[in-house]
Design goal:
This protein is α/β, with parallel strands linked by helices. It contains 7 helices and 8 strands. An 8-stranded mixed β-sheet has the order 3-2-1-4-5-6-7-8, with helices on both faces.
């Protein structure tokens, strides 16, 4: 699968490495190709860099791994991506897109994209790098996008990717990510914790 990732921070670079190892072709979209600092990523097989519009044009799946308040500035690059799958892994912890509570709502309002989903926001990059035994979630109205995300979660190594509901549940899923941030960072439990679904056996 051809996957575009906008943003090469902790989450973006971790997704890039693991999906590349699973055999996917990764295009990192960056503002300045010549000034790209994460050169070690390019030593991984299946990973290349391009401008943001160039990378978006190449991928069938687009991951916006950027601060939520940066999303409105990317909208102009998504004009030709209305039929592509857009993954929002963000949590509006420190900043929100102007006029919106979260990046998911901004994307729905400001673009014509049909397949927007919230995914990979419920844990830290360390757990995404090694997600064996861990659960993740996806929400959005697009069944096509959710099917692809479930496969991509499996390719990363997650134990389960649960359907969290439609567009109306994306904000609630973001709160799940906020719960992880609160426990891991604010309450000091550390980044090696996870939020899993536990199914109890009948007594």
């Amino acid at each position: 699968m051809k996957i575009t990732i906008i943003g090469a921070g902790n989450i973006g670079s971790t997704l890039a490495r693991n999906w590349a190892k699973a055999g996917h072709q990764i295009f990192l979209g960056v503002r300045k190709v010549d000034g790209f600092k994460e050169k070690e990523l390019l030593s991984e097989g299946n990973i290349s860099i391009d401008t943001i519009p160039g990378a978006i044009a190449k991928g069938s799946v687009i991951v916006l791994s950027v601060p939520p308040d940066a999303v409105p500035s990317l909208v102009k690059h998504l004009e030709g991506a209305k039929d592509k799958i857009i993954i929002d892994p963000t949590n509006a912890f420190r900043a929100k897109p102007e006029g919106f509570e979260n990046a998911f709502d901004a994307l729905r309002s400001l673009t014509r994209c049909k397949h927007i989903v919230k995914a990979f926001n419920n844990t830290g990059f360390e757990n995404i790098a090694n997600p064996a035994g861990l659960d993740t979630f996806v929400s959005g109205d697009s069944e096509k996008a959710k099917k692809v995300v479930k496969q991509l979660a499996k390719d990363l190594g997650f134990a389960n990717c649960y359907d969290f509901g439609g567009n109306d549940k994306a904000a609630l899923q973001e709160q799940l990510g906020m719960c992880w941030i609160n426990l891991a960072l604010v309450q000091g439990m550390g980044r090696d914790i996870a939020i899993n679904v536990i199914k109890r056996q009948p007594l």
